[in-house]
Write a structure and sequence with these properties.
two-stranded antiparallel sheet; 4-stranded antiparallel beta sheet; globular; about 10% strand; 9 helices; alpha+beta; Rhopdopsin 7-helix transmembrane proteins
Length: about 350
């Protein structure tokens, strides 16, 4: 049988390295190297990159211990050992925190779309992204993330039926006793004893409903702002200077790519995992590789930003040139030796 744990571990380690290096590069360029005044957009970029690093770091600390598995009417998020000798309860909370960072990142991305919409159509209101007002947007993302995490923690709390439902498949695939590992489990349908009839386990179903509401809210914000910018932006930009128009178009392209990328790398995998149990199909599938893909998303976002926006691309090139010159400067040329 294919060793899914090793595959998940490799993907996670690669995602951690690529994400941390790319996001730290973005933070460095934003704070020290980009010469143009990007206004509050700089703060939003730094915040989003910071959450991306934390997201990848937490996953790296949990891997290869953590995983995701789908089975018929259920899925389980779990940790298969005790990193740092932590308690089962603490690690279960840590799983919920990991999930909350996912939603916080999406919320901050939605805030970037709101900022760009206001910058084009209502620039007088950009003051609401500066100084103390910025804390409101941070609180918004944190609040959405915390609510998401608490919802998963409470609604997906393990009970006797969910333990029994996942016991066999977890033992077959991973040689794990589900009763002894930190985990969060969703089982949508429960069979009535001595009957073939089933009923919906609404507590677990509410976990899916809760995630759907808040994820859809963020995604709707991004789609609406993208639609308005796509249709009406050119008329507004005609009143600006050529440099300003160019920057707005570049940031808009960045945001469009930032909408498409999480759709593929984050929304589609998550909604696939959380809605498959409603179909109650006979299948079992190691979906833990999705967690590694989640860690790759912030890296893709950073690459988009540095490639599309000229100021970031130039700043990166300047930094690379500087390090290349510095490297050449410290290389001591070897003196020729005379042979007798």
């Amino acid at each position: 049988m294919m060793d899914w744990s090793e595959i998940n571990k490799s993907v996670s380690q690669f995602g951690f390295f690529v994400t941390t290096s790319s996001q730290l590069t973005v933070i460095f360029l934003t704070v020290f190297c980009v010469r143009r005044d990007l206004g509050a957009y700089k703060h939003l970029v730094v915040l989003f990159s910071t959450v991306g690093v934390l997201f990848a770091l937490l996953e790296f600390l949990l891997y290869p211990a953590s995983g995701l598995h789908s089975h018929s009417a259920a899925y389980i998020v779990y940790i298969n050992n005790r990193p740092f000798d932590a308690s089962k309860e603490f690690l279960t909370v840590l799983l919920a925190v990991y999930c909350s960072l996912y939603c916080a990142a999406i919320s901050l991305l939605a805030v970037q779309f709101i900022y760009r919409y206001i910058a084009v159509f209502c620039p007088i209101h950009l003051k609401y992204f500066n100084k103390c007002y910025l804390l409101i947007w941070i609180f918004y993302a944190v609040l959405i993330g915390v609510e998401w995490g608490i919802g998963i923690y409470k609604f997906d709390e393990v009970d006797e039926y969910s333990e029994e439902y996942m016991r066999e498949t977890m033992m077959d695939y991973y040689q794990l006793d589900v009763t002894k590992i930190p985990c969060l489990v969703t089982v949508i349908y429960q069979t009535i004893p001595n009957s073939t009839e089933t009923f919906i386990r609404w507590k677990n179903a509410f976990a899916t409903i809760n995630m759907t509401i808040f994820a859809t809210l963020q995604y709707s914000i991004m789609i609406y702002c993208s639609y308005k910018l796509y249709n009406d932006m050119e008329e507004k930009l005609s009143l600006l200077s050529e440099d300003a128009r160019k920057l707005h178009r570049q940031i808009f392209k960045t945001l469009l790519l930032q909408l498409i990328t999480p759709t593929i790398a984050m929304y589609t995998p998550v909604f696939t995992v959380i809605y498959l149990p409603f179909l109650n199909l006979e299948y079992t599938l190691p979906t833990g590789i999705f967690m590694g893909i989640f860690a790759l998303y912030p890296a893709l976002d950073a690459v988009i930003l540095m490639y599309v926006i000229t100021d970031y691309r130039r700043a990166l090139i300047d930094v690379l040139k500087f390090f290349n010159l510095f490297k050449k400067a410290i290389v001591v040329p070897q003196q020729p030796t005379n042979t007798l």
